[in-house]
Amino acid sequence: MMTSDVTYNDHSISSMGEFSIGGVSRDTIEDTAFEDRVKKYIFGIGSGGDFSFSGYYDPDDSNGQDLIDIARFRGTLIGKELRFHVDEDHHFQISTPGKLLITKSKSIVFDKNNLGKIAFSGTVSGGVFDLVKKTKLFDSAENVLFSSDGYELFCYQS
Fold it and tell me: In a 3-state reduction of DSSP, which class is residue 71?
């Protein structure tokens, strides 16, 4: 699998070459009392941030680009089925019980050579992106004994 590959329901979204995960942030709440000389703050609730991905427009990609657009149109909440692949063994996906809301889809720009670039973006709700690693078991000679389609948690952001 290529770097920067994006998949939905285990289908590669055609021609995606770039993705961005906005990161986790926390609100601050003013906690200043009358006798304070400078403002004081405490942490409020966190936000899972936002995300985007883009690449070349493919009008025939009915299992990828079209499905993401349909999810946006219907207001479908997307879970772990949308994955942002770093390499063959690692990808980012939303943590449980979080969901992804596609807020913008099929933002298309064509150049003078009739080459279209497409972009999608959304917001994270109730979770954060986890980096997960594909599970593999090796024997003493480094032969793969087991490789699952399931993934184990590699790193958790909170």
Answer: helix
